[in-house]
Amino acid sequence: MSSSPRTFRIPWSGLLTAGLTALLVWFFVRNLHWAQVRQAFATANLGLITVAVLTTLQTYLIRAWRWQALLRPLGDVPFSPAFRTTVIGFTALFLLPARVGEVLRPYLLARQVGLNFSATFATIIIERALDLTAVLLLFAGAMPFLGVDVGAETRLAGVLAAVAALVGLAALFVFAGHPEKVGQWADWFSRILPARAAAAVGAFARKFAEGLAVMREPRALAVSLAWSLALWASICLGIWLVSHAFGLTVPFSGSFLIVMYLVVGVALPTPGGAGGFHVAYQMAATTYFGASVDDAAAAAIMLHLVSFVPVAVVGLAFMWQDGLTLEGLKQMRPAPESGTEEETRR
Predict the structure, then answer these.
(1) N or C end of the chain, less CB within 10 A?
(2) Could you give the C-alpha distances from 168 to 19, 109, 126, 133, in angstroms and in order?
(3) Count of domains in the chain?
(4) Is the pTM for the entire model greater than 0.90?
């Protein structure tokens, strides 16, 4: 019996990602003097780097506490599963393509504690909105104390962006107050879909609207925003510690400027932010804080390692304890959900 020939598909997505990563890495290293980079590593303050590692791990405790606050309207989630799935999700985000960790994190938690996946996933969307708001608010608040001239246009853009983020958060709050609208829009969109797909979309939309419940509780939303500000202040503390470990004269307020660059750098679709993270830090440190290209490069490499390696090690340990593998996580897909809670929990 003859078998049909296999169709060869060119992995365009992987090739484009590899090409972008290579381009960014080349841009980062093209003018480096490696002897000076090695010297910067040799003279770095290991004590400050150690504290930066602990600070980085602390941010995942804060992420888990914030997630608990966001999930409270859906149910009381214990800290342990919230923390473990947060770390595993970010490990997958760093090590797997296509940002699958963003979906795996709510999926793993929903499976462990019996929540609905769509509603749990909605809390991740709220997290991203809170992250953007917190970053912009901290940057706007730090601008008078940067000690460097970022230009009137940048200052105005920072203030306007922070105001826009708050307006967007308020709009999401209003939108969450009318969850039936989500269902109505889903029903309208479902008219062009096959019956089975339409039912799945409708069920997802309604459960997703349930996940916006925290937006309808001002106190819970305020607590979540406070955790977000603490989270990004902790991230900026890590940036400041590593910068000073390499002798860079970056004030603590200056780390709020650097983090704006890093947010853009890690948004580029490269594995673990490779290349984009390094270029972003190097540009900010050399442009505003008088760092040499080589010292900034060494600090960028160390900050990337501090930001990604410790949580990846802990995440892989958690995965081993839970019998999970990266390949297995890659294959995981949330099961189609129906409209009933009983069917969701099966």
Answers:
(1) N
(2) 35, 27, 11, 9
(3) 1
(4) no
Q: Give dist(CA 108, CA 344) in Å, integer.
A: 14
Flag whether pLDDT at 339 surpasses 50.
no
Q: Give a yes or no: residue 26 inside a domain.
A: no
Q: Which two tokens stand for residue 106?
A: 């709510």
Domain range for 195 is 40-333
In a domain, 291, yes or no: yes
Give tens-digit pLDDT for 110-163: 999 998 888 888 888 889 888 988 998 888 888 888 777 777 777 777 777 778
- Unique residue bearing structure tokens 């202040």: 233
